[in-house]
Design a protein that fits this description.
eight-stranded mixed β-sheet; 21 strands; 21% strand; globular; binds zinc ion
């Protein structure tokens, strides 16, 4: 067994924070009316809107070790990482809907704004003597030509390690752009340098870096080697002016964060970096550029639509072009696409479907049919929770269909209203439903974790192979089932779970 290929994770966490302003996106400022995931929930609560406490939720786990390949799979299940923490939100209970968005050169339409950005980039990095070609086959060739003819601008790809110069740029950027004071070296390191990848993947080989640093000279059939975290440092006349924090993995490049020198605000470096990364992607022959989360009703996050692309329907594990799905995301609602006359609940989390979505017959948003106040999810998951007790699992069986916490006394100082770690609700869009977990127990599929999944027991500081899940105590069983709900059965077989 090769430990470096294992996924080492904490038991899954469900953190909810009903102190509204904690949501980093709407800051609690959105009208309560617009925080509901579906029309059905909005209707149900139209008369007691003021007593509902909306939540900002996080579903995730800490990870000590992950391969770039596994992280790729998790990104395609809607997760992102912040340092070593891998997370997504509860798309139903959260105040905002965060959709994974990815794009590429085919999806990108060069708008006036982006063309202007490219022209400005040329002006900023090339000299007056530079003669552009009379004809470029596309904007990627154009961008490569500017960059290779610049004597003042260059970027360097390197391991995602700390340097004083990067840290100073980060502090300047956070203070000036986000009015965020008091940034420490520790915070910078845990956010933008630390990652859960192995030492080999973090450091890479000299061949990998050399190849990546010559990306604009790659031939169309060159296979790029780099996988893992990357800092791309932008220099102008030898001075560090920006750092793109990126993750490279088999299906593409994921943008983690981008910091830039506020003195260069006229350069539109944010847009330049997105264009450059899409250009790099096409030169290294990988399919997608992951821009993080798209939030339809959040100006800070919906600018991503200008690069085109597709968003992930976490319930069906399918990507749908933004152009097709936009009308169904109005007011940032939950979207669950289906061609079924009524929504089906079964979610395939282990295998990513490449099947094309047929938009013609019956295609509609089934979020309310499944997760609404009268949707099928409540009944089926509650029944399954009841039946799973037979197998020693302790999921709650609840009588109330409501998913919201009511704040009747309106006491903002209530300590319980702050950030809390909860048990997982019985149904969360994008997690393996309890009906499927029940099926695993009934048909014996659950035994596939035996002799595959490993447990790091913090009470004894020992690591052991999970011999027989059914013989474990209820707490361990539930923790393993929660892992399956989050990442699927196959990925769980490869995991070492810290309990
Ligand atoms: Zn929000």
């Amino acid at each position: 067994m090769n430990l470096a290929e294992k996924l080492i994770i904490s038991r899954p966490l469900y953190i909810s924070d009903s102190d509204d302003p904690k949501c980093g996106y709407c800051k609690g400022q959105k009208d309560n009316d617009n925080k509901f995931a579906t029309e059905g929930w909005r209707d149900l609560h139209k008369d007691d809107l003021d007593t509902i406490k909306f939540q900002s939720t996080t579903v995730g786990f800490h990870t000590e070790l992950i391969t770039a390949e596994m992280y790729d799979k998790l990104c395609n299940l809607g997760y992102r990482r912040s340092g070593n923490f891998i997370y997504k939100t509860d798309m139903l209970r959260n105040c905002c809907r965060l959709y994974t968005i990815r794009t590429n050169k085919t999806y990108l339409k060069m708008s006036k704004e982006l063309k202007m950005c490219l022209r400005k980039f040329k002006k900023n990095i090339t000299s007056a003597e530079f003669k552009p070609k009379s004809h470029y086959s596309d904007w990627v060739e154009e961008l490569c030509d500017y960059q290779s003819n610049s004597s003042t601008f260059k970027t360097v790809f390197e391991p995602a390690l700390f340097s004083e110069e990067k840290f100073q740029l980060y502090v300047k950027y956070q203070e000036s752009i986000h009015h965020d004071e008091g940034n420490t070296r520790d915070q910078f390191e845990s956010f933008l340098c630390n990652s859960p990848f192995s030492e080999e993947e973090i450091m890479g080989t000299s061949e990998e870096w050399e190849q990546l640093n010559n990306w604009f000279n790659l031939k169309s059939d060159d296979v790029i080697l780099r996988n893992g975290p990357v800092h791309e440092c932008y220099y102008h006349n030898g001075k560090l002016i920006a750092v793109a924090v990126l993750d490279f993995f088999p299906s593409g490049i994921s943008s983690v964060y981008f910091i830039w020198d506020p003195d260069y605000s006229k350069w539109s470096l944010g847009k330049v970096s997105a264009l450059r990364e899409i250009a790099i992607l096409s030169k290294i022959n990988r399919p997608y550029y992951y821009l993080g989360y798209y939030i339809e009703d959040c100006p800070k996050m919906n600018y991503k639509a200008k690069y085109g692309g597709e968003i992930l329907d976490v319930c069906n594990n399918k990507y749908i072009p933004l152009s097709k799905v936009s009308p169904m995301l109005k007011n940032g609602e939950l979207f669950v696409g289906t061609n079924q006359p009524t929504g089906a609940l079964r979610q395939e989390i282990d295998t990513l479907s490449t099947e094309k979505v047929n938009f013609e017959e019956n295609f509609h948003n089934a979020a309310d049919e499944i997760y609404g106040p009268n949707g099928v999810a409540f009944e089926t998951s509650n029944q399954s929770a009841q039946l799973l007790k037979r197998y020693g699992l302790n999921y709650d069986v609840t009588k109330t269909r409501d998913i919201y916490i009511h704040n009747d006394n309106n006491d903002k100082t209530d300590p319980h209203s702050r950030s809390r770690i909860h048990r997982f609700p019985n149904f969360v869009p994008g997690l393996v439903p309890l009906t499927e977990i029940l099926e695993y127990f009934e048909n014996g599929t659950i035994r596939e974790v035996n002799r595959n999944t490993m447990i790091f027991d913090t009470r004894f500081h020992s690591i052991r192979v999970l011999k027989d899940l059914e013989l474990e105590n209820s707490d361990t069983k539930t923790a393993i089932c929660d892992v399956i709900r989050l990442i699927g059965l196959n990925n769980t077989k490869n995991a070492i779970v810290i309990i």
